[in-house]
């Protein structure tokens, strides 16, 4: 028996050995690199920075966390960031639902393929270029202004509305794709059965399609919500003077050189995402992210 | 459910409108790549081919593309291996801590990039003390790319079931042979789709990259970030963005075709 054959026999006899073989490398990677890195960051939040040298000093204190939890600035920015992330997510889902439905249930196979390509392609134009293009579109005398001004409208300019618009634009493909995949899994026969039993279109959508689609919608929302939650670049490009949590973390790592405070601020999006993921898990959404 | 022709028409109109909005900013970028203006001004004062010529001779941009391709290939290769391993483990076995493992796979993409970025930056510099560079970017990117491969592979495994693998084992094939001749061919198009998404994710990533790149490495997004606001470089950035979208059609279309052919077989 060759060694390979012998290992094969051993592995087919013991399922725990197969499992160890499968899990060792990925768990080492995610555990020893990612989780250790995250844990180290969280510990840093309990340290302090020497005000003279700017070096991180290992001196245990809850000051950073108390500052972040009680500071008015952090509370305002946290609420603003959550508001923006929620709004972006809702807008994206409302836009994605009809498109995904058209792609999965109305379009023929050929059109379907073309539409998937059309939705995926913009992902390859750089994120920065797209954000900057929106800056141009929304500028005074830009495309937006030249389209709506004849009708008495005006460009929203740079600020939170522009941030919501740009972020919703950037993450839209990430929201359409899971919802489209979820709709593909809803069998047509079920929709027909609902129709045969007398349900009108709207009733079928509300009572059959949406409940089956719920995990896919939640899975899609994780993308748009978390991507918006940590963004600081789009805010810089189209947000005017507005700040989001990402900006606060970024300034404290960079210009202010205060890693402990940055880590304490980072705890806010981490806790929000953990609550969000826990809620998503209960709905079974993580099974088809 | 039978959709009335009005409902179909409404859905078609909404889809067309949204696609138009999706491509509007890209159209602005395309027009600007031919504009005589050096910033993104609208409407363009005149048209020129100068930027297209200069983009192909721009050493900084070409090198940045090379670096980004190298990193994306590395990160994709690692995430293909790790993502497939976890997906097989979670789909085919029931074990204690299964939920924790699946959470672990999702976490790097679910947490904001800036959190992952500073956590890994801190890890590389102060805990294991490695120099930031291409290697650290690949490690960071692979960490959040695993999930795209994982998703595609686990969905495929769920659909194919285990009967073919059991038949292969009953006929006397060892686990290597079964994987090579039965499992892998079934996974191939899922791996391609997941790998493509991982490549795209890594190629366009800027936030985690900023924190794990150190000073010597310039990926394409970092190069774009540095040049977007420079008057004579902004139009060249537009040219490169247009080219990337155009080139991306090939792999996306290919993946679609393969997925379609796979579905036809089942």
TrEMBL record, chain A:
Entry-linked Gene3D superfamilies: MetI-like
Entry GO terms, CC: plasma membrane
Name of the molecule in the record: Spermidine/putrescine ABC transporter permease
Entry-linked InterPro entries: MetI-like (IPR000515), MetI-like_sf (IPR035906)
SUPFAM superfamilies: MetI-like
Transmembrane helix found in the keyword field: yes
Organism encoding this protein: Pseudolysinimonas yzui
Sequence ranges assigned to domain ABC transmembrane type-1 in this UniProt record: 78-278
Compartments in which it is found: Cell membrane
CDD domains reported in the protein's UniProt record: TM_PBP2
Similarity comment: Belongs to the binding-protein-dependent transport system permease family. CysTW subfamily.
Keywords: Cell membrane, Membrane, Transmembrane, Transmembrane helix, Transport
Topology class, membrane: Multi-pass membrane protein
UniProtKB/TrEMBL annotation, chain B:
Family that this chain belongs to: Belongs to the binding-protein-dependent transport system permease family. CysTW subfamily.
PANTHER family xref list: PUTRESCINE TRANSPORT SYSTEM PERMEASE PROTEIN POTI
Membrane topology field: Multi-pass membrane protein
Organism: Pseudolysinimonas yzui
Broad class of the protein's primary localization: membrane
Example GO biological process: transmembrane transport
SUPFAM superfamilies: MetI-like (SSF161098)
Keyword Transferase found: no
Protein name according to UniProt: Spermidine/putrescine ABC transporter permease
One Gene Ontology CC term in the entry: plasma membrane
């Amino acid at each position: 028996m060759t060694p390979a054959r012998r290992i094969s026999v051993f592995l087919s006899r013991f399922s725990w050995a197969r499992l160890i073989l499968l899990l060792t490398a990925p768990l080492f990677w995610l555990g020893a690199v990612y989780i250790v890195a995250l844990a180290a960051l969280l510990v840093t939040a309990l340290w302090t920075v020497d005000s003279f040298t700017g070096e991180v000093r290992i001196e245990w204190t809850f000051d950073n966390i108390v500052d972040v939890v009680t500071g008015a600035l952090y509370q305002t920015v946290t609420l603003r960031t959550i508001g923006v992330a929620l709004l972006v997510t809702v807008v994206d889902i409302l836009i994605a639902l009809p498109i995904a439905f058209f792609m999965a249930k109305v379009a023929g196979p050929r059109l379907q393929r073309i539409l998937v390509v059309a939705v995926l392609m913009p992902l390859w134009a750089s994120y920065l270029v797209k954000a900057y293009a929106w800056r141009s579109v929304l500028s005074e005398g830009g495309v937006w202004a030249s389209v709506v001004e004849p009708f008495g409208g005006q460009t929203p300019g740079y600020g939170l509305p522009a941030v919501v618009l740009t972020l919703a634009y950037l993450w839209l493909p990430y929201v359409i794709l899971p919802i489209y995949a979820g709709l593909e899994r809803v069998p047509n026969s079920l929709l027909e059965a609902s129709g045969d039993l007398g349900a009108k279109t709207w009733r079928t959508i509300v009572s059959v399609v949406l409940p089956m689609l719920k995990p896919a919608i939640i899975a899609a929302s994780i993308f748009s919500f978390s991507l918006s939650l940590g963004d600081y670049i789009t805010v810089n490009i189209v947000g005017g003077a507005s700040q989001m949590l990402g900006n606060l973390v970024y300034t404290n790592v960079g210009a202010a050189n205060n890693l402990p405070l940055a880590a304490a601020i980072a705890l806010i999006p981490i806790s929000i995402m953990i609550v969000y993921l826990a809620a998503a898990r209960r709905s079974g959404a993580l099974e088809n992210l | 459910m039978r959709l009335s022709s009005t409902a179909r028409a409404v859905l078609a109109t909404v889809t067309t409108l949204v696609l138009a909005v999706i491509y509007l900013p890209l159209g602005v970028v395309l027009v600007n790549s031919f504009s005589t203006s050096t910033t993104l001004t609208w409407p363009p004062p005149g048209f020129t081919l100068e930027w297209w010529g200069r983009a192909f001779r721009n050493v900084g941009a070409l090198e940045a593309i090379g670096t980004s391709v190298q990193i994306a290939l590395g990160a994709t290769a690692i995430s293909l291996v790790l993502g497939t391993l976890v997906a097989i483990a979670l789909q085919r076995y029931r074990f204690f801590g299964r939920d924790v493992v699946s959470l672990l796979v999702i976490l790097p993409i679910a947490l904001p990039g800036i959190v992952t970025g500073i956590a890994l930056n801190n890890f590389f510099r102060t805990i294991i003390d490695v120099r930031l560079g291409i290697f650290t970017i690949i490690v960071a990117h692979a960490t959040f790319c695993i999930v795209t491969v994982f998703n595609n592979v686990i969905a495929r495994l769920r659909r194919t079931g285990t009967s073919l693998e059991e038949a292969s084992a009953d006929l006397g094939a060892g686990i290597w042979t079964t994987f090579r001749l039965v499992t892998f061919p079934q996974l191939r198009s899922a791996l391609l789709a997941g790998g493509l998404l991982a490549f795209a994710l890594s190629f366009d990533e800027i936030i985690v990259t900023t924190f794990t790149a150190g000073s010597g490495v310039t990926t394409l997004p970092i190069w774009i970030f540095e040049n977007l606001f420079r008057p004579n470089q902004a139009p060249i950035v537009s040219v490169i963005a247009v080219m990337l979208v155009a080139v991306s059609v090939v792999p996306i279309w290919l993946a679609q075709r393969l997925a379609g052919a796979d579905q036809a077989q089942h």
